[in-house]
Amino acid sequence: MNRAAAAIFLALLCSACPKRLEFGPEGRIEDAPTLYQHVRERQAQVVNLEGDAKLRVDSPQGSGTLGTFLSITRPGLLHLETYDFFNRPVASLVSDGARFGVYQSQGNTYFQGPSSPENVSRFLPIVLPSEELVAVMLGQVPLLPPESMTLTLDEKERVYVLTLVRGAAKQILRVDPRHLRVVKSEVRGVPGYDLAFEDFKQRGELLFPGKVILTAAQADTKLELRYTEITLNGRPDLTLYELTPPEGAKVVEVDAQGREVTGGGPVSPPPPAPGS
């Protein structure tokens, strides 16, 4: 066998060999509660984010990609602005965790009221509490409080599989064995949504996903957030979370169900929840 043939043979042989699983400094973890605690600790490392992203929405209400500026701080501070292809403002959302304001450029209308899931859904076509939306955008999985949990190692997918169970609900987490970060979450047994985190990059001492994908099958909705230029754990500009209607905008007060409120109470029915 000549040298060229030998080199090709060795290359093919090596490509056929499975790569060795890499574990972090903790080594292989065999205990489910231990991995669960590590996951919680890794997720808690990021407390705020500011910068630019591309937001892709696929839903019954419409589909498209928007430029997005965002500033988010745990537990429930949100400031999101979206722009069209020509960099024209489309909508904005601000929440201080208790109150919200959504401005829609089409109609020059500003909605304000309690920061409920129904009201946040005026900005995104999915019903989520602001605290949960903040967590997801910070690359974190809202974890099911488990009554029991199991742990296996999937050597083919090269991930830990941590399964959390509470009553009829089951959350299946796929966890990178080296960095102990969740790369995928699936909720079964109860209404919920799936999450996937991709394109992890090292940002200082933090490993952070460049892409967050949320899939709500029951609502036939998928959101994909791809970060472009962001900073993590900086000093947040708290003025971004002030609830101030744009000058000249029509201001509409709504209740927690999204119904318009006048002095006599709600006067219009709530908008339908996505997928209902």
UniProtKB/TrEMBL annotation:
UniProt biased composition (Pro residues): 267-276
Region (Disordered), start-end ranges: 256-276
A Pfam family the protein falls into: DUF4292
Protein name stated in the entry: DUF4292 domain-containing protein
Organism of provenance: Corallococcus llansteffanensis
